[in-house]
Amino acid sequence: MKKIILFNIVFFSVICLSFSNDLAKVESPIPAQDSIIGYFQLEKLNTPPFKYWFEHEYETYTVDSETLLQIDEGKISTITITIVIGTWCSDSQRETPRFIKILNEIDFDFEKITAIGVNKKKKAAETTIDELSIEYVPTIIFYNDGEEIGRIIETPEESLEKDMLRIISSQ
């Protein structure tokens, strides 16, 4: 009887160890090699594997057009934006498509956007990421004449549109 109990303990220990090793090998929905790291064009988000979350969030988001009408066209024309995202990050997967839809709604010039993808340590080689002091993603940085005038970090305080209006109106 003792031998059977000892055998069962050893047998199930080996099974558990094997199972836990298999769990460690399970990949996230977007493996690291499929993450965007470094400078990129926002259109890249509309390609696999990113397009699955991008399209859904973009299509289902309702833009607050009433708030956007309050943005001074003269002020928005002088704005440049840097957007730092982690394609592995659920906040980036939610807020980035929404923000892009807002920019499309106001006909923003996408040539005035710098997009940077980072890894989970918020790093991206051969970019200016270290100068930006990024702690959370997404981080959307607004500039006027090269000077930072505000940020939306991770999630908006009120809404993307209202936070954007507040930042742009502050200049």
Quick structural gist:
By secondary structure, this protein is α+β, with helices and mostly antiparallel strands. Helices cover 40% and strands 16% of the residues. Helix 2 packs across helix 5.
Topology:
Layout: H1 2-25, E1 38-40, H2 51-60, H3 65-68, H4 73-76, E2 79-85, H5 90-105, E3 113-117, E4 139-144, E5 147-153, H6 160-169
Parallel strand pairs: 2-3
Antiparallel strand pairs: 1-3, 2-4, 4-5
Structure description:
- This protein is 40% helix and 16% strand.
- The protein is α+β, with helices and mostly antiparallel strands and 171 residues long.
- The model is unreliable at 5-31 (pLDDT under 50).
- Strands 1-3-2-4-5 form a five-stranded mixed β-sheet, with helices on one face.
- The chain has helices at residues 2-25, 51-60, 65-68, 73-76, 90-105, 160-169; strands spanning 38-40, 79-85, 113-117, 139-144, 147-153.
- It has a single domain (32-169), classed as Glutaredoxin.
- Helix 2 (51-60) crosses helix 5.
Global outline: globular
CATH homologous superfamily (4th level) name: Glutaredoxin
Question: How do the strands line up in the largest sheet?
Answer: 1-3-2-4-5
CATH architecture: 3-Layer(aba) Sandwich
**Rounded Rg:** 22 Å
**pLDDT below 50 for ≥5 consecutive residues: which ranges?**
5-31
Query: What is the helix content?
Result: 25-40%
Q: What is the count of structural domains?
A: 1
**Beta-strand content estimate:** 15-25%
- Largest beta sheet, briefly? 5 strands, mixed
CATH fold call? Glutaredoxin
Count of distinct strands: 5
Q: How large is the count of helical segments?
A: 6
Provide the CATH top-level class. Alpha Beta
In round numbers, the mean pLDDT is 86
Could you give the order of the helices and strands? HEHHHEHEEEH
